[in-house]
């Protein structure tokens, strides 16, 4: 009998707890999938939410609502005044910041609201918009909705192209990490049906201070992330080759303490998929490997010099030095020690196969 009583009590508690959960019907809420922020004048911020309207046998209709506010955390409350249904953040895929806003006011106060929201996942994508966030969100980019298109665009470039892994969690980790500064991808609206990834923005104290173009992204990823499947074109005097299926790794070595010197060893392995020359002979392979090695060394070193000039450290050299030096003080890293740091990039390129010849 005691066992029966326990079962009855546990079942009753389960029903009571279930009754405490607030139920929300999809048709009765506005499920935010993306939100964008624009600069709206001195101290003012404009926020735009993107939510879908689902229709039978049709792609979702992209809907937006916009409000301006002096206090950034009240933007969603102001947008709610325009909505007939409750606004819910549990399905957000992307947060966008207009570059003007990210450069002048910064993004930290806005990001803080999302890191405190238990309904927002840490895998949320963050991106800077080259232009206005609202204008970009009001396009029509695919049958699965604008937010999903933006999310898939970033995910594809992380998995198959030159964008290092990035999301809300990684941005905050880099921001709070001693000896490292964060970055975000940059998006640009090309037309009402097309968006492109056109760079990476780097932050200092929560504000954009530098941007690199797509041609530089490949070399930045070599410094901060691994390649499991990439593509790069290499030019020699005999022709141009497309190096595909690129795999890469990197590691740091504190080769000297005083003055500070870090050696960055980069290993790259790939396949010649296309070549514009007559024949990919072994000697041509060696020329391609040499040209690729020199390009990696030159372009990666240029990036390091840009970071030193802007007093930012997205690679995390400072954090690495701290882990290798007892009681190291990072308080003046960006302004002083980083400027005196010597970084030697040592690439090793190996081309294993040759494919199509044009």
UniProtKB/TrEMBL annotation:
Segments traversing the membrane: none
All copies of domain Spore germination protein N-terminal, residue ranges: 23-188
Domain Spore germination GerAC-like C-terminal: 198-355
NCBIfam families in the cross-refs: spore_ger_x_C
Pfam families for the chain: Spore_GerAC, Spore_GerAC_N
GO biological process: spore germination
Protein's recorded name: Ger(X)C family spore germination protein
Family: Belongs to the GerABKC lipoprotein family.
Primary localization: membrane
GO CC entries: membrane
Topology relative to the membrane: Lipid-anchor
Organism superkingdom: Bacteria
Key words of the record: Germination, Lipoprotein, Membrane, Palmitate, Signal
Record's subcellular location: Membrane
């Amino acid at each position: 009998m005691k066992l029966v009583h326990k079962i009855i009590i546990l079942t009753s508690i389960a029903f009571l707890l279930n009754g405490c959960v607030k139920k929300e019907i999809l048709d009765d809420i506005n499920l935010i999938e993306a939100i964008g922020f624009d600069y709206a004048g001195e101290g003012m911020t404009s926020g735009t939410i993107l939510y879908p309207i689902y229709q039978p046998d049709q792609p979702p209709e992209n809907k937006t609502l916009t409000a301006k506010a002096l206090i950034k955390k009240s933007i969603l409350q102001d947008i709610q005044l325009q909505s007939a249904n409750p606004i819910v953040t549990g399905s957000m895929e992307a947060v966008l910041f207009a570059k003007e806003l990210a450069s002048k006011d910064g993004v930290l106060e806005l990001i803080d609201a999302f890191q405190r929201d238990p309904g927002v996942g840490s895998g949320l994508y963050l991106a800077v918009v080259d232009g206005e966030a609202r204008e970009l969100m009001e396009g029509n980019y695919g049958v699965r909705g604008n937010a999903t298109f933006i999310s898939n665009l970033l995910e594809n470039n992380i998995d198959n192209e030159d964008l290092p892994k990035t999301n809300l969690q990684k941005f905050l980790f880099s921001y709070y990490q001693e000896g490292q500064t964060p970055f975000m991808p940059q998006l640009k609206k090309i037309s009402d049906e097309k968006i492109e990834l056109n760079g990476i923005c780097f932050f200092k104290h929560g504000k954009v201070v530098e941007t690199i173009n797509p041609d530089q992204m490949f070399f930045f990823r070599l410094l901060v992330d691994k390649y499991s499947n990439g593509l790069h074109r290499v030019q020699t005097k005999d022709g141009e080759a497309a190096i595909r299926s690129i795999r890469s790794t990197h590691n740091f070595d504190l080769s000297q303490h005083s003055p500070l010197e870090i050696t960055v060893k980069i290993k790259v392995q790939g396949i010649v998929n296309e070549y514009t020359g007559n024949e990919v002979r072994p000697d041509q392979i060696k020329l391609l490997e040499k040209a690729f090695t020199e390009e990696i060394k030159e372009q990666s070193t240029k990036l390091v010099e840009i970071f030193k000039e802007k007093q930012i450290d997205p690679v995390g050299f400072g954090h690495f030095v701290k882990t290798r030096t007892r009681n190291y003080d990072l308080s003046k890293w960006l302004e002083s020690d980083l400027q005196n740091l010597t970084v030697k990039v040592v690439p090793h390129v190996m081309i294993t196969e040759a494919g199509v010849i044009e």
